[in-house]
Specification:
The protein has 6 helices and no strands. With about 140 residues, it is mainly alpha-helical.
């Protein structure tokens, strides 16, 4: 294995974790804006029992779970679906192309979450810690 292959093998799971953490942090802000009007939105906070309120709940709590890397695959799959629904319900009525309908963020989140649903949380995740504990032999049983 070359040095470059070794570098990629070492850093790919770590950079995957960075992608997950940064994406989750940005995604949480969409939820806090909907639920708490922070950062401030021209529309203000939405009712929690509305479709936008449910979206905000998913964004805050799902984003927090992704930030930790806990239940990464199922949460990312759920959020990917949420972003697909958001794109087709909110953005497509203004035109199909994301540049025209201002849906680029929804499309990017959708596909990043779909990738995380397949790839997992990476090296720096609670999921990895839990898996490592199960798969490594106990020191006294070796």
């Amino acid at each position: 294995m070359s040095n470059l292959d070794s570098f990629y093998a070492t850093w790919t799971p770590r950079v995957l974790s960075v992608l997950r953490i940064v994406t989750a942090f940005l995604f949480i802000a969409h939820g806090t804006q909907k639920l708490f009007n922070y950062p401030a939105s021209p529309n203000g906070a939405v009712a929690i029992n509305s479709m936008m309120g449910v979206a905000g709940i998913l964004e805050v709590f799902g984003g927090f779970l992704l930030l930790l890397g806990l239940f990464t695959r199922p949460v990312a799959f759920l959020l990917s679906g949420q972003m697909a629904v958001a794109y087709f319900m909110v953005h497509v009525p203004s035109g199909f192309l994301p540049l025209v309908n201002r849906g680029e963020a929804a499309v990017l989140y959708c596909f990043i979450f779909l990738f995380l649903a397949v790839a997992g949380g990476g090296e720096w995740s609670v999921d990895r810690l839990l898996t490592r504990d199960r798969n490594e032999p106990h020191p006294t049983k070796a």
